[in-house]
Amino acid sequence: MSWVIDQIGFLTRSEGRSRISRLTTMLSLLCVALGMLAGCGETAGNEEDRRFANDPSGDMRPTGEVQETRVPLATPTVQPLPSPETLLRARGAPATVYALVNGSIQSVNATGTGTSTRTIAPPPDTRFIAIDSSPSGNRVAAVTVPATDASSRSSVDVHIFDSEGARLETWTGVLAPRDTPSTPDSGAVVQAGAAVMLDWGAQGDRLVVASAEGQLASITLGEGVESIETPAVVAAIGDVEWSPRGDRIAVLGTGEDGGTRIGLIDPTAPGPEFLVVAPIEETGEGEQIRGFTWLPDGSGFVFLGGNGEDAGGQLFLVDLETMTQRLVATAGRGGPSATINSFSVSPDGKAVAYTIVVLDAGTPRFNSLWVRSLRDKRGLPMPVGDVVDVNALWWVDDGVVWSQTVQEGDAVQESFIQLPPGGDPSVIHAIEVGTQTTGAAATPVATPAATPAATPLAATPVG
Predict the structure, then answer these.
(1) Tens digits of per-residue pLDDT, 111-121?
(2) Are 276 and 261 in contact (CB under 8 A)?
(3) Which of 75, 191, 246, 319 would staple 300 via disulfide (CB 3.0–4.6 Å)?
């Protein structure tokens, strides 16, 4: 500012300048001075606003303390696993389950308002040997043979019942008779799948029927029966299921060499072909596939494979899209003599339920019941008490239901237990089935009925 004042004084003393020129110059210098003052104030008060994009931020003047700046760590992207109880929540499961008890079909429907049950007797002079629930659970298909025919199967008929026991449709002579001994009538239960197998298609409009000797037939509801030619490489059939898409039939076939394979059959093809899809990898010497089920989306299978001398084995998953196979579950928690001998996949394909038995002198004894995720390592033991056996397990719209044989003194009872997610097990139905024979284990009294996603295997030796 002193320089500006000196210049103004100098101009005032100068001679030869006009008054107007001197005044104009003075005003110009005053404007410059005022502009400099305003610029200094702006710089002091708004320094942050005048910073360029590449200028460092913050007050760079030294202070008495050194401020340490820490960059926060990124939030982990891996979410914790949900509680094990979520394994019991299966979308698309029905509310009604079916089992063969005392020679009749027992339907059990458990809802929040209570439990309703029905007993469906076989038609006169016949007996049930296999059943399968419809995908919605509102109907059940059943195979009957003559009640007095203990030496050969002269006729195989198929019936459709609703959940109240009304017979809706019947097809007679579905499979041609063969001179093969059928399963004897025990009075309490007939082993489903021992002579004839039955599966209801996922669309709910068709059935496939197969015999252990290798016969196949397809039934369309509201129409008739069509025989399916069995490929020559299949000497016997151990299990059969429609694909979820309804275009193929998966068959557990035994070849002339005694080996078991899962193969696909196209019922509309001009000639019988057996496209082997499992196992992709051999699981051991003498390995046999005991049973299988489609994954609900049709992407692959879960199958039970074990040594030929065992009653069960281990669970494997086959992915048909990647053509890979992986181990799902073992019976390791049951001990060295334990094995898995029955299983059922949830209708949404997220989990599998299975039973473990311990072999006692070759006889399987129930050990435990588990539900395991097919996507990770989570497993949930079912709270099963002191029982003789667990005969079947079903996925329902509120958790799971299993049937168990309980002995009290000489009396034997079949109980249906429901376990909701996060809840406690409760008995929803019980049936007296007979008395215990002296010196022998109680006879299993319930035969599993299929869920929409899987046909559970009987909890007794297979093969």
Answers:
(1) 777 889 999 99
(2) yes
(3) 319
Q: What is the pLDDT of residue 50?
A: 42
Query: 197 Cβ partners below 8 Å, 6+ apart?
Result: 130, 209, 210, 211, 212, 237, 239, 240, 455
- What pLDDT, on a 0 to 100 scale, did the predictor assign at position 153? 56
| Both structure tokens of 229 | 């030619």
The pLDDT value recorded for residue 209 is 97
Cβ-contact 459, 391 below 8 angstroms: yes
Sign (positive or negative) of CA dihedral 58, 60, 63, 68: positive
CB atoms within 10 A of CB 84: 16
Q: What pTM was estimated for this model as a whole?
A: 0.74
Structure tokens that stand for 246 in this block: 């309804």
CA-CA distances (angstroms) from residue 269 to 65, 223, 228, 249? 85, 20, 10, 12
Q: Please give the pLDDT value at position 308.
A: 63
- Position 14 scores a pLDDT of 46
Tokens encoding 380:
């949930």
Q: Are 358 and 335 in contact (CB under 8 A)?
A: yes
Q: Return the number of other C-beta atoms located less than 10 Å from residue 27's C-beta.
A: 10
- Which residue numbers in the chain have pLDDT < 50? 1, 3-5, 7-8, 10-20, 23, 27, 32, 37-66, 68-69, 71, 73-78, 151-152, 180-193, 436-463
Q: How far is CA 296 from the centre of its chain?
A: 8
Instruction: Tell me the C-alpha distance between 122 and 167, whole Å.
Output: 10
Tens digits of per-residue pLDDT, 62-83?
Answer: 444 445 445 454 444 445 556 7
